Amino acid sequence: MNRPFKIASLLVGLLLGCFAVFEITNGTVHVLAAGPSFTTIDFPGAVFTLAADINHTGQIVGRYADTAGINHGFLLSNGTFTSLTFPGAVWTRTIGINSGGDIVGDYSLTDVRGDKDVHGFLLHGGNYFSFDFPGAAATVAEGINTNGDIAGFYSGNTGSNTGSNNRHGFLLSGGAFTSIDFPGASSTEAWKINDHGEIAGRYQGTTNAKWHLYSLSSGVFTSFPDFSGAAQMAPDGYAHVGGLNSQGDIATCYCSSTPCQNIFNSTVIAGVHSLLLSGGFYTSIDPPAALGSFALGINDIGDIVGTYEDSGGMIHGYLRTP
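Given the sequence above, the corresponding structure tokens read:
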């Protein structure tokens, strides 16, 4: 009498198996979540591509280098790439995007490496707006929430991407800047701000100069323990960018061995891995076949973007869907 039910269950299972992982327990089909999928992102004709942030509608921003080695920002929306360059800039990077499509980043009018003359910008309604933290030598805008609040960091040094001393996070809200410094830290960076006003970033200790993760919510700082397999959390390189969503999940990276700096060196990047902090637990999330990778942005449904180096030394962006 059970034979027809078993056959029916098997047919249902075969159909479901085409689309998902499943199991049958006591004659009941249970659909299990399939494993995460990864999609490579390459700006057409680019020498390298980095994906830096993603909003809840799936729009992605990042940067790419053209064949002349010039860096531009980009927007990927509904499968279409748009190149973004701040007017008159020789170097542009787009880093954050909110649910309304507003974009933030940084640019330089004079330095093709983006190490000097660096300013923050907002792209809203097709118009670019430049801003600088008062008195700063360099301003980097990294995240923007639905309310238009912007988080980032500034430096008293002339370089924004070389060296990491004397950095401070900032919040730009209602036209007013607030400096952010983790208590006792030698340097602090603010990465992203979510729709609850929570900020996440990294700070550098004074004893061993290592970076650690933090969040700032309602004026209260929280430091997160380092990943157990990390020789260094969020190592210097492109790891001054990280992700935060409205659930408080953080996307970042770690290196499993030293040295950790100059991560675009093929020997070093092999020890750098994408990392997700969610619900108090860490998960290492390297794309398949990546020599090394780092996660840079996460949206409210858990989509993650970042970048990785393949075995041939090419740099690609990636999208990870749960």
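Residues 37-321 form a domain with the Neuraminidase fold (CATH 2.120.10.30). Try to locate this feature in the token string yourself.
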